[in-house]
């Protein structure tokens, strides 16, 4: 269920990508300001919702490893569905209305047919504090998951000292490593740079867009879900998608 939600988030984000390409190709935004806010916010929404589902997938896999059992069994089949609905409810009922009312309220945000220029929001103390909190959570959670994955790998290699690559348990952990690498490669650089950017946003807007664009490469993880082994044991190729 977490994987299906992750794919849905990627697909929703990809629908907005042509509009970003259109703006950077023409350097003019001929559509409405409200739609600009939607397209601009979608890349952030995609990044954080995907991050939540990555964390959920990894926690479930780690839980299964430490318990020495197969995937976590919910007491009721609908529990996974309700958990997914809870995540989307928070996004749609709480975060989306706040975003629609507050995001892009500065006077400089959309002038002369420009778009994706919402750095003025960082002048607000509350916005800056919220950004620091989000950065801290993303970096700490990613670090904790990466450390846990390394420890699990050490345990697996110690358990299968010879011909470890022939064991299904090893390749299962390789797939978990793929998710960790996506988080480290796609999300950590952006959030690390953002610490500096929040105090120098007027001079590094282009650089911020580049780091933000890197987060979109997390969509390539959909390639790992294709094929007959999509929800089973990972093969070597999954790490290179």
TrEMBL record:
<keyword id="KW-0807">Transducer</keyword>
<keyword id="KW-0297">G-protein coupled receptor</keyword>
<dbReference type="GO" id="GO:0008142">
    <property type="term" value="F:oxysterol binding"/>
</dbReference>
<dbReference type="InterPro" id="IPR047160">
    <property type="entry name" value="GP183-like"/>
</dbReference>
<protein>
    <recommendedName>
        <fullName>G-protein coupled receptors family 1 profile domain-containing protein</fullName>
    </recommendedName>
</protein>
<feature type="transmembrane region" description="Helical">
    <location>
        <begin position="210"/>
        <end position="227"/>
    </location>
</feature>
<dbReference type="InterPro" id="IPR017452">
    <property type="entry name" value="GPCR_Rhodpsn_7TM"/>
</dbReference>
<dbReference type="GO" id="GO:0016020">
    <property type="term" value="C:membrane"/>
</dbReference>
<keyword id="KW-0472">Membrane</keyword>
<feature type="transmembrane region" description="Helical">
    <location>
        <begin position="7"/>
        <end position="25"/>
    </location>
</feature>
<dbReference type="Pfam" id="PF00001">
    <property type="entry name" value="7tm_1"/>
</dbReference>
<feature type="transmembrane region" description="Helical">
    <location>
        <begin position="132"/>
        <end position="158"/>
    </location>
</feature>
<dbReference type="InterPro" id="IPR000276">
    <property type="entry name" value="GPCR_Rhodpsn"/>
</dbReference>
<keyword id="KW-1133">Transmembrane helix</keyword>
<feature type="transmembrane region" description="Helical">
    <location>
        <begin position="45"/>
        <end position="66"/>
    </location>
</feature>
<feature type="transmembrane region" description="Helical">
    <location>
        <begin position="170"/>
        <end position="190"/>
    </location>
</feature>
<feature type="transmembrane region" description="Helical">
    <location>
        <begin position="78"/>
        <end position="100"/>
    </location>
</feature>
<keyword id="KW-0812">Transmembrane</keyword>
<dbReference type="GO" id="GO:0004930">
    <property type="term" value="F:G protein-coupled receptor activity"/>
</dbReference>
<keyword id="KW-0675">Receptor</keyword>
<feature type="domain" description="G-protein coupled receptors family 1 profile">
    <location>
        <begin position="1"/>
        <end position="225"/>
    </location>
</feature>
């Amino acid at each position: 269920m977490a994987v299906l939600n992750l794919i849905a988030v990627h697909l929703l984000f990809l629908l907005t990508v042509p509009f970003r390409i259109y703006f950077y190709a023409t350097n003019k935004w001929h559509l409405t300001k409200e739609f600009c806010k939607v397209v601009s916010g979608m890349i952030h929404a995609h990044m954080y919702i995907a991050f939540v589902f990555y964390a959920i997938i990894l926690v479930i896999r780690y839980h299964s490893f430490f318990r020495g059992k197969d995937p976590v069994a919910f007491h009721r089949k609908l529990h996974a569905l309700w958990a997914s609905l809870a995540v989307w409810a928070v996004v749609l009922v709480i975060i989306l209305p706040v975003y629609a009312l507050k995001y892009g309220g500065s006077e400089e945000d959309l002038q002369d047919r420009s778009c994706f220029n919402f750095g003025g929001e960082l002048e607000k103390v509350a916005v800056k504090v919220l950004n620091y909190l989000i950065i801290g959570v993303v970096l700490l959670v990613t670090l904790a998951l990466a450390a846990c994955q390394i420890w699990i790998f050490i345990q697996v290699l110690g358990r299968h000292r010879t011909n470890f690559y022939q064991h299904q348990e090893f390749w299962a952990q390789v797939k978990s490593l793929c998710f960790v690498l996506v988080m480290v490669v796609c999300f950590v650089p952006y959030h690390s740079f953002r610490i500096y950017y929040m105090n120098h946003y007027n001079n590094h807007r282009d650089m911020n867009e580049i780091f933000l664009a890197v987060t979109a490469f997390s969509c390539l993880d959909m390639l790992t879900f294709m094929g007959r082994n999509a929800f089973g044991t990972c093969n070597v190729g999954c790490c290179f998608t």
